[in-house]
Design a protein that fits this description.
Elements: H1 4-12, H2 16-29, E1 34-42, E2 48-53, E3 61-62, E4 65-67, H3 74-86, E5 89-101, E6 106-117, E7 126-132, H4 142-159
Parallel strand pairs: 1-6
Antiparallel strand pairs: 1-4, 2-3, 2-7, 5-6
Length: about 160
């Protein structure tokens, strides 16, 4: 008989008012996370695009990326940040890495991107951009290093 209450609850949530209340309860009770998204962009020479960011004091070099906007698809965010920071567009590949970070609490997503097109035009938050060989990377955050390593493997498999 322990499932009787579950069956009753299942019938109850069929009512529109109960579903609406449930949605509002989720909005106020379920924790929300910030989500950061980067794009690991490779050119035809197998070099990765790195940007020197104004707002990254300890590890200024990193991949194009930023915070996910409310209701934004992460893939759209990756391409938007690439365009905003560099003026480039690219073909977006799969998500290659996801990490949870405690301080500040957020999730990090990394996408593979390739076949960049457009003219390199840096935004105000980018000091410098460089196409970098994988054996000559500057000091990077561990997430970015791992994302580049995984992206290189997937990128190489796609080129075969």
């Amino acid at each position: 008989m322990p499932t009787v209450w579950k069956q009753r609850l299942a019938r109850l949530v069929k009512f529109r008012l109960v579903r609406t209340l449930m949605v509002w309860a989720i909005k106020f009770v379920v924790p929300r996370h910030r989500i950061g998204v980067i794009a690991v962009v490779f050119n035809e020479q197998r070099q990765v695009l790195l940007l020197k960011h104004v707002f990254h004091p300890t590890h200024p070099w990193g991949a194009p990326g930023g915070w996910l906007d409310r209701h934004e698809d992460p893939a759209v965010c990756a391409l938007r940040e690439l365009k905003e920071e560099t003026g480039l567009t690219a073909v977006l590949g799969p998500i290659i890495l996801i990490h949870k970070k405690p301080h500040p609490a957020h999730l990090e997503l990394a996408y593979l991107a390739y076949k960049p097109t457009g003219s390199l035009t840096l935004s105000n938050e980018i000091i410098e951009a460089a196409w970098t060989d994988l054996n000559n990377l500057p000091a990077l955050l561990p997430f970015t290093e791992e994302a580049i390593e995984k992206a290189a493997i997937i990128y190489d498999q796609g080129r075969k």
